[in-house]
């Protein structure tokens, strides 16, 4: 097990450096040596993603670095997911995420989704052009804690209000928090439509999601 722990320090470094092949290799070795998936995630993967997120916040690294780290993390996580199925306590919380109806942009949304996964959330990624009905159905079906909406166009950002109204009508509004983000979105806009939170980048989204979950 000592050897496995030494190897897992390499997983932390691989995620920090965005090295996919190394992250996958070390994770496979750790699983073969009997290390629990949750220990791999909590002690190495999450800490690696938190470290790259902190570097992004301080301006030491940039979006391409975040994308590479997220890619490495997802490669490792794909190995662990089958071993964790059915274990509800394996995750901090459950997030439904999507780009709103009429908007086909997904790079920023996918980065946020990857950061959520890397930091211990279960993520249901609905993709792009997502209707209010699809957001509500996914939240109900998956017993989501948070709905996270993205928009990159001023012409589509107002659809976020329709989703929140539909959430109200469905009776879920008191049970599910709403986070919004995207280039044209602001904190003032988020407040005006009744969202619980706005964040401007992927790392901030993770921090805010943890606050919202803890407040429940």
From TrEMBL:
Q: Domain B12-binding N-terminal, which positions?
A: 1-92
MF terms from GO for this chain are: cobalamin binding; metal ion binding; methionine synthase activity
Q: One GO CC term of this entry?
A: cytosol
Q: Which keywords appear in this protein's UniProt record, sorted alphabetically?
A: Cobalt, Metal-binding
Among Pfam families, the record links this protein to: B12-binding, B12-binding_2
SUPFAM superfamilies xrefs: Cobalamin (vitamin B12)-binding domain, Methionine synthase domain
Biological process (GO) annotations? homocysteine metabolic process; tetrahydrofolate metabolic process
Every copy of the B12-binding domain together lies at 92-216
Q: Give the matching Gene3D superfamilies.
A: Cobalamin-binding domain (3.40.50.280), Methionine synthase domain (1.10.1240.10)
Keyword Metal-binding annotated: yes
What does the sequence similarity comment in the record state about its family? Answer: Belongs to the methylamine corrinoid protein family.
Entry protein name: Cobalamin-binding protein
Q: Which organism is it from?
A: Bacteroides fragilis
